[in-house]
Amino acid sequence: MRKLLLIFMIGIFGLSYSQKVPTVLKKSFSKEALKQKLEDEEGKTITIQQILDQHKGKVLVIDFWAGWCRDCLNALPKAKELEENNKNIDFVFLSLDRSKEGFEKSLERFDMKNKENYWFASGWKNDFNNYVDLNWIPRYMIIDQKSAIAKYYAISPEDPEIQQTINNLLK
């Protein structure tokens, strides 16, 4: 009986903390989400809008991750492979590390220093993450050449829809 109760509790706990596909797959960002501030490696503040403006005219993959996230670290080799196989598009890495020190250590430890990285100094709960229904990481989004959302929700760099979306955008 105890084993059944334990299995039941683990099942309920596991279900309540797993990724849930958003019911609405958004195609654009709200004004509040675009105003969300992040920090770069030097501690300079930048908004989501400024990041999108820097990549306008290019296909952009946004990779949400953190150095403490086991799922993110397991996905990292495939994320690097996706990047290597798509040199003609841009990649931005948005860190959900819990501190600036953790962000810096993660960049160093996981060989991310040569990439475009930003950190949510405001923490997980903020206007951007709330708007994009960020409930788990890793998470991947694809932004088209006009800064619209082309692929709203992917949880693995191996999701075939990621490459398919990239290919369709480059046609």
TrEMBL record:
Residues 27-171 form the Thioredoxin domain. One of its GO terms (biological process) is cytochrome complex assembly. Its main location: other. Gene3D superfamilies: Glutaredoxin. It holds the Pfam family Thioredoxin_8. Coiled coil: none annotated. InterPro entries: Thioredoxin-like_fold, Thioredoxin-like_sf, Thioredoxin_domain, Thioredoxin_ResA/DsbE_sf. GO terms for cellular component: cell envelope. Keywords: Cytochrome c-type biogenesis, Disulfide bond, Redox-active center. It is found in: Cell envelope. It comes from the Bacteria. This is Alkyl hydroperoxide reductase.
